[in-house]
Structure formats: structure tokens, C-alpha cells
Prior knowledge:
D-Maltodextrin-Binding Protein, domain 2, Alpha-Beta Plaits, 3 domains, 4-stranded mixed sheet, 10 helices
Amino acid sequence: MDLVNQYATPVSHAMTLFRDSIALCEVNKRLTSIPAWKEDSSSPSLKAKGRLQQATLDLLSGSDIQFRRETRLDIALVKNLPIALIFLPAADIPTFVGEGRVDLGITGRDQVAEHDAQIPDGEVSRVEEIMDLGFGSCKLQVQVPQMGDVTEAKQLVGKNVVTSFTALTEAFFAGLEGVADGKKLRTKIKYVGGSVEAACALGVADGIVDLVESGETMKAAGLKAIDTVVESTAVLVKSKDTKNPLVDLITSRISGVITAQRYVLCQYNIPRSELSVASTITPGKRAPTVTALEEEGWVAVSSMVEKKKIATVMDELCKVGATDILVLNIANSRTA
């Protein structure tokens, strides 16, 4: 059976990722209802977000979600679980998740905020954030030409502002203008799907609202940030309407991988008389594991420590008499 026909058959569950991003959705629905074939597979967003996509794929690999993605297909069946992965633009994932078409999604918090900002009054978002995945940090910022005289966002009121995030931008400037929801803004918000940073140089905009990660692209375009609309990072989201029993399983696996990435296992020997002091240095996730040594008056301690703090922790342990200090990487975990 070829892949296209295979995806036309009912599957049991599915998950969306970003092509840019990824998502997991229930697949008792026929997958032919989701566009799986893209003629233009060399999406600019894929190139721009390749590092984030790789971080997502590494997260799935660590969660033992095994799949092989065929060339030019945006759907991949998971080999060891009854789910499918659907590769979508990051901006589309909150819509698929919110409508219950997919159960889980990995996308940016900014994309969820943009989706929620478009929901009509009286309606509630069906997208629920489960956890911060710890990568892809960036800010949606108001930017203006470095050589210009604009230093505050309120100076752009009534002028032209270009962005890919029209709903968040409109809400931001509505606040500056003191305009109630639904009222017309004096600020002219224009949508551009890509190369937003070029809008000022081309005379299309007086300012832009765009994502900033390192700031290199912004500086290269001769722009400076003057305000922040929202801070973002990659997040795991789920549909509030999902009844898929695999959602909790996959969430637990992903959480375990993230914990393993953030922590190391620190082991050392310490005189029992100094144990209470050492335990304050390495309290662990719940409490350190303490084991008596053959040598009287000594104990061995094992504790999880945040990776970014381990050098300082080792220094402090040496000061209180700890010896034989070892640091071990954690391949995976399940913690409370």
C-alpha cells in the first residue's frame, strides 16, 4: 500500500508538529481531511526555524516516538504508538488544536496568543498550554529605524505598522489608544507574511512588530526595539476537548525528557556531621538519597541538580568537606 493510500485509512490518533512545528491529533478521523502533500516543500519558514524544528524532533526521539517522514509529505505514522505526526506551520497549530482536529501540539506561545486574540467576544479558547519546553525563547517586539526619532511605541499611534501578528498588534495599539474592543484604530496595521523587517526600509511602514531572538536580523535591518508585546517560547499545548488516553502518556514522556535535559545527577561522599549542610546545597527534586558507607561516620549522597548550577554547587560542596564528587548525565526521567 502506498503512503497516500495508507494515510487515507483510519488511524487511531495523531499529533501535530511545526514544520516550523509539530502536533499530535486523534486520528479516528480520516487523515485525508488534513492536507498532507505540499508542492512547495522548501518553505522559508522551515529554513528560518530549522533549529527549533530539530529541538522538537530531538524531544520526540527522547520520548521514544519513532517515525520516518517520507519526502514531501507532512504526515508521518508513528511506528510504536497508534498515532500520527502532522507537520504544520507553527501559526496553524493552535487552530487545529483549538478545533479538536489534533490532540497535542508543539508551537510558540506567541502563536497561541495570536490565535486567542482572534477569538470573538463571548467565546473561550479551546487551546490549553501544558508546559514550557525550554527552547525557542524570543520576544514579539515593536521595532523602528535606529536613525529615526521614535523612541516610544505611543509615537507610532496613527502611523503605519507592519506585522505578521495582526491580532496581537491591534490589541497592543488599542491599549495605547485607549480604544475599546471592536472600535476602529487610528494606527494602520498592515499584514505581511514574511520579511517584515524590510517594511521600514521600503517605506511601507513607520514601525513593525516582529519576533526577535538574538537581535541580529533586527540590527542588520537598521532597526531597534522600543517595546515588547509578548514574550514567547516553545510550548506543548492540547485541545481542551481531547479524550485521547495517549495525551497523558506522551505529556509524561516529554516532561521526563525535559527534566533530564535540565538536570544532572550529583554524587559525593560527605562526613555525616556535615550532611545537613550539604543537603541544603543539594536538596534534590524532593530530597537527596543518602546511603551509609563502610567507613564509619561517612555517607554517600546522590541528588539531582540543575545543570546550569552544577559548577557552583560543586564548589560549595568542596567547602563543606565533600569528596569524590561525580556528575552524571541523565538520559531520561520520570519525576513528580
